């Protein structure tokens, strides 16, 4: 920040021609260092001009606020902070793991997984929906873009106008002969700031992001039109050889926590980026992250299993009741038949006790206590019946 420029601002302020200064993507002030964009840190001197300062960013974690306030020369109590949620309700966050034990295996495996994932998303989201694939290194960006057959975008490629032309072609989707009908671009974080393309349906990170702030910034390119979109990380399941130029592990525990999948992805993002610690998982109206989706699927399976068990138990009970009813009817029928037999037997006994039935039928005055089998009347009546036949 030159003295000449500060004097210019002061002269405009004195003439009431400067009301406020607005700095967009102000989190980049912290990212400046002696070796990387050192002038960024000098932006804090603008606060000395004496006009209202407005700083805009979507990726300033609460943990970075003290350092940021120090660089812009203000006290925390003098700042009016307005925060909105960093995670997008319409974006489904997920992580896919790729096993590898050597550098060669890692390169092959992660490129293959990236291709499979992107092919899947191209099919799910038809033209003109777009996809950004982020890589951490320029060489990885070039390699993957060549493998896929699409454009690459990074700080070293092309001229300023050439970069703008690449973006224009990708955003318009006019290069239909390219991979994915020209809807895919592979980039470094050079494509992370100031990109407001409404129909980006998937943001794919190849390798684990180093910082959650960077990941939030880049994944925030997805679904800016409010439509269902995805933010996917493809990471190696194991560390590979230390000969790799940069390790495939994050420098912050928060990134490791996000990648591990021990808790909801939004829980980690909201905690780191917004200081929110009351979240337990994806909430109503939000696209489920893969962790919460797995939990819901498991609960549904258990619930369905319980319902099946309840139905099976009910069917078994119904069968038991039917068997018990059949057994009861059989026992009852046997008892009724036995009672009929006893009744019939009793009637026979009663008739025997009444004496000779033939003498009773003839109404003779003779003694009827004898058995009908030895009765002369029975023989006589039997003969009469045969003669009649």
TrEMBL record:
Gene3D superfamilies under this entry? P-loop containing nucleotide triphosphate hydrolases
The protein's annotated catalytic reaction(s) are: Couples ATP hydrolysis with the unwinding of duplex DNA by translocating in the 3'-5' direction
Family annotation (InterPro entries):
Helicase_ATP-bd (IPR014001), Helicase_C-like (IPR001650), P-loop_NTPase (IPR027417)
Swiss-Prot/TrEMBL GO biological process terms: double-strand break repair via homologous recombination
Q: Enumerate the Pfam families for this protein.
A: Helicase_C
Q: Where is the Helicase ATP-binding domain?
A: 1-78
Name a GO molecular-function annotation. Answer: four-way junction helicase activity
In short, the EC number is 5.6.2.4
Q: What Gene Ontology terms describe where this protein resides (cellular component)?
A: chromosome; cytoplasm
Question: What family does this chain come from, according to its entry?
Answer: Belongs to the helicase family. RecQ subfamily.
Put simply, this protein is called DNA 3'-5' helicase
């Amino acid at each position: 920040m030159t003295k000449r420029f500060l004097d210019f601002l002061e002269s405009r302020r004195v003439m009431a021609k400067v009301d406020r200064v607005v700095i967009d993507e102000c989190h980049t002030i912290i990212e400046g260092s002696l070796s990387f964009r050192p002038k960024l840190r000098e932006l804090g001197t603008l606060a000395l001009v004496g006009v209202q300062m407005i700083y805009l960013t979507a990726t300033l974690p609460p943990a970075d606020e003290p350092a940021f306030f120090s660089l812009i020369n203000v006290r925390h109590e003098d700042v009016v902070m307005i925060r909105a949620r960093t995670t997008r309700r319409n974006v489904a966050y997920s992580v896919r793991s790729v096993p590898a034990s050597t550098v060669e295996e890692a390169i092959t495996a992660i490129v293959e997984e990236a291709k499979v994932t992107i092919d899947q998303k191209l099919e799910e989201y038809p033209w003109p929906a777009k996809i950004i694939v982020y890589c951490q290194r320029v060489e990885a960006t070039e390699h993957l873009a060549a493998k896929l057959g699409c454009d690459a975008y990074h700080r070293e490629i092309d001229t300023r106008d050439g970069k703008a032309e690449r973006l224009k072609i990708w955003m318009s989707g006019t290069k239909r002969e390219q991979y994915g009908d020209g809807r895919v671009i592979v980039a470094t974080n050079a494509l992370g700031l100031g990109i407001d393309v409404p129909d980006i349906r998937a943001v794919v990170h190849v390798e684990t992001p180093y910082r959650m702030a960077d990941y939030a910034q880049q994944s925030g390119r997805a679904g800016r039109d409010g439509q269902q979109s995805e933010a996917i990380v493809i990471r190696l399941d194991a560390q590979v050889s230390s000969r790799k130029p940069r390790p495939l592990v994050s420098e912050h525990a928060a990134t490791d926590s996000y990648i591990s999948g021990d808790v909801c992805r939004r829980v980690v993002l909201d905690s780191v980026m917004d200081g929110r610690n009351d979240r337990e998982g994806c909430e109503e109206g939000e696209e489920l992250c893969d962790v919460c989706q797995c939990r819901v699927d498991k609960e549904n399976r258990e619930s369905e299993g319980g319902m099946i068990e309840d139905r099976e138990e009910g069917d078994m009970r119904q069968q038991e009741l039917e068997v018990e009813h059949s057994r009861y009817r059989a026992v009852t029928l046997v008892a009724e038949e036995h009672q009929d037999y006893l009744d019939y037997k009793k009637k026979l006994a009663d008739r025997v006790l009444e004496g000779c039935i033939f003498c009773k039928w003839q109404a003779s005055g003779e003694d009827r206590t004898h058995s009908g089998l030895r009765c002369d009347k029975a023989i006589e009546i039997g003969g009469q019946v045969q003669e009649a036949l």
